[in-house]
């Protein structure tokens, strides 16, 4: 059962979501069932990059995690692409045995029984601006698969007013989930322009806009967080 | 029992620490037993600003919080100065009755029985660069006062290598506390220069330095977070 690996890097800090600031090693899988308009990791999504993805088994992935972490237990962040497409049971079982913790981020389009083995699961259904459709049944299957022992949170990317309205309605249906809103990076890096410079003023303006929306609407449950790695490392890969 | 109030403002987001990104109203008390070299809120610390601090009772503070929050329950962040110098029992009792949650930040130099009524307590003992001394006995009295029902975290500001070494040693003595490291703002606003412009490149360089230290030392428990409000609002007051 091999896992398609796009990249393994770190340790660095988690730049977004509920675990923002936590030291972590990222394991990015290759392959995705979505193709979001503003995707910032197309090199882990588009089939034309498939040749760059290495098939690795759980032991091989953990050997690399341990090499990077210096053999110390660390938070491993599973990202993609959509890591929910991969067979990760063995990675979670072996990794927990070595003391690692596991957080995963997925759009919630595919549930796996092993979600319940994760320490943290960030469900990040994609808003209208992505061009993708929300499938409630599949999303709820992900919630059910995570069960009570996995800390689940909802992270919604907001590019515009329509996304914001969508997020308000969606979040209201899941009051039990901690909620993070994240302004969409208006200038994501692409395989063609990996060094594209992000304008920090523009990112900050998007963040201020979102804070103003949330406070004006008295939506005090909604935590607003930027992508810290974009602010501090400017879209660079591998950090 | 009146509370010395420097300012009440919001709602905005919490810019730092474990609750980073949470919508909140800030209640800043006036008066402090410390005088840190890099203090960014001298207007709530130095006795020469005492005439600006209003004595308010708990009902008056809550009336202002409710006006700002539109009457909705919200996270109230008690900051200073050192809010631990104030009589806050009644504020916490009445505020909880209205559905508000309370987070407080203090250096841990003075314990109060009402710490156990807080929802979140951030203890932020000051590092050597502040010019202040750490008093372990008082710090542990704060921990004891908080008890088991208050979520306590440790937030340590790091200006230089000496601060970093101090933080490593201190945090090791309290492995049970969630830990946040925060790079010191090298150019805090002052009453004389409230509009002082912070150089985002310099702030980012301090953050990158701290991430590199933590990961090189495999200190994976240490969450590294910036002061988001400084990055996005540039030291401005009242946001």
Could you please describe the fold and organization of this structure?
Chain A is α/β, with parallel strands linked by helices and 239 residues long. Chain A has one domain: Aldolase class I (TIM Barrel). Chain A is 28% helix and 22% strand. Chain A contains six helices and nine strands, in the order βββαβαββαβαβαβα. Chain A has a nine-stranded mixed sheet with strand order 3-1-2-4-5-6-7-8-9. In chain A, α3 (136-146) links the parallel β6 (120-123) and β7. In chain A, α1 crosses α2. The radius of gyration of chain A is 17 Å and the shape is globular. At the A-B interface, β1, α5, β9 and α6 of A face β1, α5, β9 and α6 of B.
Short description:
The structure is a homodimer of 239-residue chains. Chain A has 239 residues and is of the alpha/beta class.
């Amino acid at each position: 059962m091999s896992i398609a690996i796009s990249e393994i890097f770190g340790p660095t800090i988690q730049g977004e979501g509920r675990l923002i600031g936590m030291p972590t090693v990222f394991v990015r899988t290759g392959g995705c069932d979505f193709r979001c308009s503003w995707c910032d990791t197309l090199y882990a999504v588009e089939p034309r990059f498939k040749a760059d993805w290495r098939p690795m088994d759980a032991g091989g992935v953990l050997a690399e995690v341990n090499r990077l972490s210096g053999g110390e237990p660390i938070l491993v962040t599973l990202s993609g692409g959509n890591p929910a497409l991969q067979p990760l049971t063995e990675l979670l079982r072996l990794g927990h045995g070595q003391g690692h913790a596991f957080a995963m981020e997925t759009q919630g389009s595919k549930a796996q029984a092993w979600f319940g083995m994760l320490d943290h699961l960030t469900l990040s259904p994609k808003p209208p601006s992505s061009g993708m459709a929300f499938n409630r049944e599949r999303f709820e299957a992900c919630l059910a698969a995570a069960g009570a022992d996995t800390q689940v949170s909802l992270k919604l990317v907001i590019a515009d007013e329509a996304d914001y309205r969508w997020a308000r309605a969606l979040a209201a249906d899941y009051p039990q989930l901690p909620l993070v809103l994240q302004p969409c990076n208006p200038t994501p890096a692409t395989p063609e322009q990996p060094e594209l410079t992000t304008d920090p003023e523009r990112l900050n303006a998007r963040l201020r806009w979102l804070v103003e929306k949330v406070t004006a609407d008295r939506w005090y449950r909604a935590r607003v967080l930027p992508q810290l790695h974009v602010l501090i490392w400017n879209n660079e890969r591998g950090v």
